[in-house]
Amino acid sequence: MEGLMKLSTLVIVCMLVAAPMASDAAISCGAVTGNLGQCYNYLTRGGFIPRGCCSGVQRLNSMARTTRDRQQACRCIQGAARALGSRLNAGRAARLPGACRVRISYPISARINCNTVR
Q1: For residue 108, what pLDDT is reported?
Q2: 107: pLDDT strictly greater than 60
Q3: Alpha helices of 1-118 — where are they, by DSSP H?
Q4: N or C: which end of the chain has fewer CB within 10 A?
C-alpha cells in the first residue's frame, strides 16, 4: 500500500511539473507514469522485471511517435526520476528498455538533454 501511495504521489507531481511543457505533445506525464507504474518496484528494489512493466515500456514507446512526444516522454521520465531521488537505481533504469526488448533512440540518463532527443 505504501508503494502505491508513493507512485500516486509521483504521478501527481509529474503531472503538475510537466503540465506547462505538455501543450504541444500528444503524450502526457500521466500516460508516461501510468505505463511505467508496474516498473516501480524493479527500479527501486531490483528483482525480476514484471511482465506488465515491459508491456508498459512497449506501449509508451509506441505512443511516442513524434519528436515532441519523445522529448516530452524524456522530460516526464526525468521528472519521475528526480521525484524518486536516491531510491531510483539509475543502472536498472538505463537497462530497462533493452531488458524489455524495446529499442529507443536515446539513452535513459539523468544527464541527457531532452531537447536533443529525436
Answers
A1: 80
A2: yes
A3: 2-18, 29-36, 40-45, 51-63, 67-84, 90-99
A4: N
| Distant-in-sequence, close-in-space partners of 38: CB < 8 Å, separation ≥ 6 | 50, 52, 53, 55, 56
**41 half-sphere exposure, CB direction, 13 A CA radius:** 12
pLDDT single digits (tens) 65-78:
999 999 999 999 99
- Reference 27, options 80, 74, 73, 79; nearest CA is 73
**What is the rounded distance in angstroms from the CA atom of residue 96 to the CA atom of residue 115?**
22
Each residue of 1-45: pLDDT tens digit? 565 445 544 444 444 444 444 446 679 999 999 999 999 999 999
Rg (alpha carbons) of the chain, rounded to whole number: 13
Q: Which of 73, 49, 52 is nearest to 61 (CA)?
A: 73
